[in-house]
Design goal:
The protein is mostly beta strands. Helices cover about 5% and strands about 45% of the residues. The chain has a domain of about 80 residues: SH3 Domains (SH3 type barrels). The protein is globular, with a radius of gyration of 26 Å.
Length: about 425
């Protein structure tokens, strides 16, 4: 077959262009605002960054409608073709590895509630699915292994249910729960603890245990007082809980069978347990003890976040600020604490802050307008999810902890919780 000189020249031209595109990198830029950069070529891949209009890109590789690009200070990711300016013939040298496969990280799941039931979604906003479609399903809590979810339904007599993470196996496991339920799994995932009301007196609650496949048992055994908010220690040795048996809120601990109940805080102020330390040797809690707590009924007293050591009862003020600090949530590695605070005294809503577990290096993460609640750490400790109420509507947002940055809107909903394992 005869090949013309023109065809040969054209073939060599294509080879040269291919070389410049894949081995050198063509300079271009983003043509829109808030453009997603993903870890792989596809809408189902995790969002790892956001770029703004005009930011420079270097095109490195192409897969269908997706471009693998370099941007910023040696950052890389995938962008959809419609969000870049047409490539110019300006070539910029850059170190490139052609067709290097991008590692695909496991999808991280977040469960949350809506008015129409419980939903589950990937942390990049993809793969939204209904787990239940029953009105009244709320307060979902993951099992430690990430395979099951326990939740409550108010519309069916305040019953406790359990369901598999794929939405199968819905099963009722307890009835007549309290108006403010708080379910907690043992870290081995075989036992569940929760606060329920006494039928004869709706104002009092106790801590109950439910062994998988077994019967419900009252373990706090204080019928005339309110015990609530059970928190299992990471080593499964103790349960912390809030009790009003001393006519004010105190932080108590007991063994998983209900024995050896001890008051750790012993103070006339209001002390509310928040989270265990990773070592299981101390508990982070909220208290108004360093303010004028005696006038609480007239003027709400500012709270602080404290740490109490289980063995010595030594108490340390971690925040020590004149503002209102509350709702501490300890990171999976135990090194940091997220919390809410009104310390700036400018807005009528709290901001989210992060600090080291020692109380040092306090950083404001976000002051986005609205009431924030239900903070839940990602298992890796670099991100967290929270609920935001704005003008009566609830939204689920994700943020990282590197300082003030723009939250990522995940969905409408409430009561979010990040899966502890993938």
């Amino acid at each position: 077959m005869k090949i013309s000189f023109i065809n040969i020249v054209f073939f060599l031209f294509i080879l040269c262009v291919s070389y410049f595109i894949t081995a050198q990198g063509i300079v271009t830029s983003v043509n829109a605002s808030d453009v997603n950069i993903r870890e792989g070529p596809g809408l189902d891949k995790k969002i790892i960054d956001h770029l703004q209009k005009g930011e420079e890109l270097i095109l490195i590789d192409v897969r269908g409608d997706w471009y693998y690009v370099e941007y910023g200070e040696n950052k890389n990711g995938w962008i959809f073709k419609d969000f870049i300016v047409s490539a110019t013939p300006v070539v910029k040298n850059t170190q490139v590895i052609i067709n290097t496969p991008v590692p695909v990280l496991p999808e991280e799941k977040i469960v949350f509630a809506t008015n129409s039931g419980i939903k589950i979604i990937n942390n990049d906003g993809t793969n939204l699915k209904d787990l239940t479609t029953v009105e009244g399903d709320n307060f979902p809590v993951w099992s430690p292994d990430g395979k099951r979810i326990v939740f409550i339904n108010y519309r069916e007599g305040r019953c406790l249910y359990i369901i598999n993470r794929d939405g199968t196996g819905r099963k009722k496991i307890a009835e007549n729960l309290s108006v403010m339920p708080y379910a907690e799994w043992a870290k081995i995932g075989k036992i569940m603890f929760f606060a329920v009301e006494f039928v004869e007196n709706l104002y009092y609650t106790n801590i109950f245990t439910l062994i998988e496949g077994g019967m419900v048992k009252n373990i706090s055994q204080k019928k005339d007082n309110s015990d609530s908010h059970p928190l299992m220690a990471p080593d499964n040795s103790l349960i912390a809980f809030c009790s009003r048996r001393d006519r004010n809120s105190e932080v108590y601990v007991m063994k998983p069978d209900g024995t050896n109940q001890r008051n750790l805080t012993v103070h006339p102020a209001e002390d509310i347990p928040g989270a265990w330390s990773k070592s299981s040797k101390s508990i982070v809690f909220t208290s108004n003890r360093d303010s004028d707590y005696k006038s609480l009924k007239v003027t709400p007293a500012p709270r602080e976040i404290y740490l109490v050591k289980v063995e010595t009862l030594q108490t340390i003020n971690l925040t020590d600020n004149s503002g209102d600090d509350y709702n501490p949530v300890v990171s999976p590695d135990g090194n940091r604490i997220l919390f809410l605070s009104h310390r700036d005294r400018i807005n009528d809503y709290a901001s989210i802050f992060v600090m080291k577990s020692t109380g040092k290096d306090v950083i404001e993460i976000t002051d986005i307008k609205g009431d924030k609640s239900n903070i839940s750490w990602a298992p890796g400790g670099s991100e967290f999810v929270f609920q935001l109420n704005q003008d009566g509507k609830n939204y689920i947002y994700i943020m990282n902890i590197k300082g003030k940055n723009k939250p990522f809107l995940l969905s409408e909903g409430f009561s979010p919780q990040w899966c502890p394992k993938q």
